[in-house]
Amino acid sequence: MLKDAIKKILVTEDEIITKSRELGEILTTEYQGKNPLMVAILKGSVPFFAELTKRIDTHIEMDFMVVSSYHGGTSSSGEVKMIKDLDTSVEGRDIVIVEDIIDTGRTLLYLKELLLHRKANSVKIVTLVDKPEGRVVSIDADYVGFSLPNEFLVGFGLDYDENYRNLPYIGVLKEEIYQS
Ligand code: PRP
Ligand code: MN
Ligand code: MG
């Protein structure tokens, strides 16, 4: 079973749902009448994007980008690759980037600069998890679900080598899984 690979649970499914409801209420107020473009950064943000957007009670649009910086290992390669771009023009739009985690910050710095360069009216970042100790570039999310220590986290979108994204909570992976 998947849970046999988990050393401890850091954030439960109930805590994620409660936090998503809180963030959804904040975004509902902030983006009333603005028809923001909510951008999910695939693949990690998929479970949180689904949880968060259904808590927003005003018009939004959705679009998707695929970027990748981790190529199978446990640490960032330092290079962000765009694999699929948006379908929607961002010029003049209010953009909300939705991420599962901000670690080194490279992915979000790249994305925020790209969208501002394309003349978005505003770009805000919502992330389920922040790992502040991991930062190597200067960028912060506007809204953070949970600030967590620098451990190898999986679940609710977070993967190890493409696995464990489907765990309904966030946990720490046992060392023996990635050391073997
Ligand atoms: C992970 C995660 C974030 C990014 C955060 O994505 O989902 O997008 O890395 O790391 P950073 O702050 O150090 O840039 P990944 O590249 O592993 O792709 P994935 O979402 O498909 O797992
Ligand atoms: Mn990602
Ligand atoms: Mg990944």
The number of strands is 9
Number of domains: 1
Cα-to-Cα separation, first versus last residue: 18 Å
Name the helix and strand elements from N-terminus to C-terminus, one letter apiece. Answer: EHEHEEEHEEEEH
| Percent strand | 25-35%
CATH class division: Alpha Beta
Strand count, sense and barrel status of the largest sheet are:
6 strands, mixed
What structural category characterises the helix and strand content? alpha/beta
What is the fold named in CATH at topology level?
Rossmann fold
Residues in helix, %: 10-25%
CATH architecture, by name, is 3-Layer(aba) Sandwich
Strand order of the largest sheet: 4-3-2-5-6-7
Number of helical runs?
Answer: 4
What is this entry, summarized?
The protein is of the alpha/beta class and 180 residues long. It has a single domain, classed as Rossmann fold (3-Layer(aba) Sandwich), CATH 3.40.50.
